[in-house]
Amino acid sequence: MLPLNYAILELFKDGGAYDTTAVMAVLADTYGSFKAFNSAAVLESLMSAEKNELLTEAHFDLDNTGELHVYYEATDYGKEMIGRYIG
Amino acid sequence: MEKKAAQLKAQQAGRFFRKGVIIAVVSGILYGIYSACLLAATGSGEWVFWYEGYAEGSFINLPVTFLMGCLILGALGSGINDFISAIWMLAKAAVKGKFVDFLRCLRSKPGMVMVVCALIGGPIASTAYLIALTMAGPIATPISALCPAIGAIIGRVLFRQKLNARMVVGILVCVIATFMIGSVAFGEIAIDTQYLAGLAIALIAALGWGIEGAVAGFGTSVMDYEISISIRQLTSGVVTLFILTPILFIIAGQVNFFDMLGGAFTGDLFIPDTWMIGAPIVFFLISGLAAGLSFGFWYKGNSMCGAALGMACNGGFSFWVPFFSFLICGLYLGWGFDATGALDVSTGYVLAPIQWAAAVVMVLGIFLIAVNPLDWFKKREKAER
User: What pTM, to 2 d.p., does this model score?
Assistant: First the structure.
């Protein structure tokens, strides 16, 4: 089992675009019981990875409730780094 | 709808940016508290006699060189601080349910990178900093605060982080400010071999922390920062206290490491009529907590802002160290007063006017690195489209 942050980044290896909600939906079964598994912490992980150019913004939209969803995808550099350090 | 989404996204990005800057600035403030408390701890109890011992050319019972005395006491103080800090940070990670992740990360490649960073920034840079402080005096602090410039360059080369002309100018302004703070020390200390060696050793600390800040800041974009800092402090504490220090003891011909370790926590505070018995341990507990929080925020700030801005905000420690030394050592412990009871700048525990001015210059430097008015307007324009 990977540490939570590694698992979040590893998701992006498949080339897909995920927002916080999508990340949490995929990882909920495995990490749902973790105290640190909450949307604020996941969003901060995604934004930190974007700041360090591992991820880049793919697109964003508002849902029916007016909540913002920013989707991220891995950069080529990010895929290389995730592959090299996380496996 | 699109305009509303763009506005919300810009707000989210703004909150993230501000949080990163605040975290990085707070890391510098906590660094000041850590340094001042460590100074208080190693200026109290048995430490007073140990330092007097090596100042006279002897150390405990055996004669050792001045440098060896500095090395042993520097490593002992740094090791105790980092080990206590590791206990604090592991407890914090455990309370937040991250202890199992800590063990998993420790066995991973990023965990190993963090261990190497800890060795560079801990036993090597921290000990070098303490030695430089002892040999060259307070000037060591601004010299070691060159680390933001080094970290920014490393971040640019290794991790493709942005570094433009405006940011370089901002970093230079911060460096000038750190030298303004240290300039107070220039007039009072004889520039001899020992002093110059101290400056060179302070540069080693700057290089070590520059490497650590850039690499560990990046590592924190992969790893949770509370786990990163737990690995950092545990590695640094164990290696410095239980490997480096005993080796130095053996080299110096000392056999009483554990006696000295015990003595490091006890004894009275170095002020008369004190009610605080065993004061060094009180200050070590505070310095350890502040150090862990400071380094953790440093990593997190760097990962949120990039190494250039994160380290420049943290670089405010070159002001916060003399500031908190003034409050804690100068005022609270009374080390800043002369025989007549007046505050005396020459004690090294009282801030001079130029140091206050330098703090303002440093804020300007950080502002230059952080904010480009043109970018800001461009972003607003984009968001409104």
Answer: 0.83
Side chain identity, residue B217? G
Nearest to B277 by CA among B265, B269, B285: B269
Give the tokens for residue B60: 């405990």
From B109's Cα to the closest Cα of chain A, the distance in A is 6
| Cβ contact, residue pair A4, B5, below 8 Å | no
Q: What is the mean pLDDT of chain B?
A: 79
Q: Residue B231, exposed/middle/buried by CB under 10 A (0-12, 13-18, 19+)?
A: buried
**pLDDT of the residue at B132:** 82
Name chain B contacts of A6, Cβ cutoff 8 Å: 105, 108, 110, 222-223
With a cut of 50, which residues of chain A have pLDDT below it?
A: none
Quick one: tokens of B20? 């990163």
What does the domain layout of chain A look like in residue ranges?
A: 4-85
pLDDT in tens, B218-258: 777 788 889 999 999 999 999 999 999 888 888 877 667 77
Q: Does residue A65 belong to the interface with chain B, where contact is any CB pair within 8 Å?
A: no
Instruction: Specify the residue for token string 């090395």.
Output: B71
* A79 CA: distance to closest CA in chain B (Å): 12
Does A11 touch chain B if contact means CB atoms closer than 8 Å?
A: no
Contact B110 A62 (CB under 8 A): no
Domain limits, chain B: 2-161+190-317
Q: Indicate the burial class of B249 (C-beta count within 10 angstroms; 0-12, 13-18, 19 or more).
A: buried
Q: What is the mean pLDDT of chain A?
A: 91
Q: Which long-range contacts (CB under 8 A, 24 or more apart) does B243-251 make?
A: B243/B123, B244/B75, B244/B79, B244/B123, B244/B127, B245/B72, B245/B75, B245/B76, B245/B79, B248/B68, B248/B71, B248/B72, B248/B75, B249/B72, B251/B68
Q: Does A39 touch chain B (CB under 8 A)?
A: no
Would you say residue B381 has pLDDT above 60?
no
Q: What pLDDT does B275 receive?
A: 46
A63 at interface of B, judged by CB pairs closer than 8 A: no
Domain A4-85, CATH:
1.10.10.10
Structure tokens at A46: 């995604």
Say if the Cβ atoms of B227 and A34 lie within 8 Å: no
Q: Which residues of A touch B93 (CB under 8 A)?
A: none
Which of the listed ranges B44-48, B63-67, B96-100, B334-338 does the model predict with the highest average pLDDT? B96-100
Would the CB atoms of A52 and B97 count as touching at under 8 Å? no
The rounded percent of chain B whose pLDDT value lies above 70 is 82
